[in-house]
Amino acid sequence: MERFASLMDSTISRLLKCELVDFSLAKGLDFTHSTNLGLRNVMTVNLILGTHEVYLISFFLSFFFFFF
């Protein structure tokens, strides 16, 4: 579990330093499901958000177990 926590901390710290351009994303990109580029953009954003979600869940659980 400790290795997972250190791996997530490292991943999240690197993600926080990134910008949209690092993932080939920009504010005005197409996110429609009817084009290949739009699907790729949606999948990229879902992966990034999923990583953040896993980190938030693990942070919450570690915080919860710290007090109980």
Topology:
Layout: H1 2-17, H2 36-67
Helix pairs in contact: 1-2
Brief write-up:
This protein is mostly helical and 68 residues long.
Folded structure, characterized:
The chain has helices spanning 2-17, 36-67. The chain has one domain. It is built from two helices and no strands. By secondary structure, it is mostly helical. Helices cover 71% and strands 0% of the residues.
Shape: elongated
Number of distinct helices: 2
Low-confidence stretches: none
**Helix/strand/pairing class, anyone?**
mainly alpha
Task: Please count the beta strands (DSSP E, at least 2 residues each).
Answer: 0
Q: What integer value in Å does the Rg equal?
A: 15 Å
Quaternary state, please?
single chain
Characterize the largest beta sheet: strand count, sense, and whether it forms a barrel: none
Distance between the termini: 17 Å
Beta-strand percentage range: under 5%
Order of helices and strands: HH
Number of domains: 1
What percentage of residues falls in helices of 4 or more residues? over 70%
Using brief descriptors, characterize the structure shown:
single chain; 68 residues; mainly alpha; 2 helices; 0% strand
